[in-house]
Design goal:
This protein is α+β, with helices and mostly antiparallel strands. It has one domain: Umud Fragment, subunit A. The chain is 21% helix and 27% strand. It is built from 4 helices and 12 strands. Strands 1, 2, 3, 4, 9, 10, 11 and 12 form an 8-stranded antiparallel sheet that branches. A hairpin with a 2-residue loop joins strand 6 and strand 7. It is elongated and about 75 Å long. The N and C termini lie far apart (57 Å). The relative contact order is 0.21.
């Protein structure tokens, strides 16, 4: 093998290793993203750039109430039960890699966790009650009320393997009020740091 060929192969190997490492970090540790919708206003605004912590998926951590998470968008925007529906799953290893790792053709939502597995949720008179107690939501803008968009999701119990999440901008958020509670296995990450704009740099709450 000539020295030139050897050098080319070494560069190719380095390139492949770098891509594999980048994909592993992106899938298991963290990745940047851009806020594209107004559903989390005023906490998050369109165009802001975030770093997502994907360790919650790696270690199968159950998020806490108030955490802002990202999760795979359900296949149906309106659930016929309490649980969100996922019907368009990849059918083979290659399509799973493209969908889950490269995230080509996959849509995700950013929402705030409101209720945890096994908790009772009631939406009434524009407010949210968890296990019979009024939920204090200081992160909402003054005057914002909460309405259920699905009769199945007005008075219900969150399944043991799911969470109930909503956007802070309730009137402009497609969330669990319509498509149902999100299975824990569909949670992709927790919003960690806002790094743009620079004057808002820091952890997101």
């Amino acid at each position: 093998m000539s020295e030139k060929t050897k050098n080319i192969l070494e560069w190719i190997a380095c390139f492949v290793i770098a891509i594999v490492l980048a994909l592993l970090i992106r899938f298991y540790i963290g990745t940047p993203t851009v806020v594209q919708q107004p559903s989390m206003y005023p906490t998050l605004k369109q165009g802001q750039r975030l770093i997502l912590n994907r360790m919650v998926r790696t270690f199968h951590e159950v998020p806490q109430r108030g955490d802002i998470i990202t999760f795979e968008a359900p296949s149906n925007s309106y659930a016929h039960s309490v649980r969100a529906e996922y019907e368009n799953e990849p059918t083979n290893i290659f399509s799973s890699f493209v969908y889950y790792v490269l995230e080509i053709g996959k849509k995700s939502y950013i929402k705030r966790v409101i209720a945890l597995p096994g908790e009772h949720v009631k939406i009434e008179d524009g407010k949210v009650y968890i296990n019979g107690e009024l939920l204090e939501e200081d992160y909402l803008q003054e005057g914002v009320t909460t309405d259920s968009k699905n009769p199945n999701l007005t008075d219900f119990t969150v399944p043991d393997d799911c969470v109930f999440a909503m956007g802070d901008n309730r009137q402009q958020s497609s969330d669990c009020r319509s498509f149902g509670c999100v299975p824990l296995e569909k949670i992709e990450s927790k919003v960690w740091i806002r790094f743009w704009p620079f004057d808002l740099w820091g952890e997101v709450e």
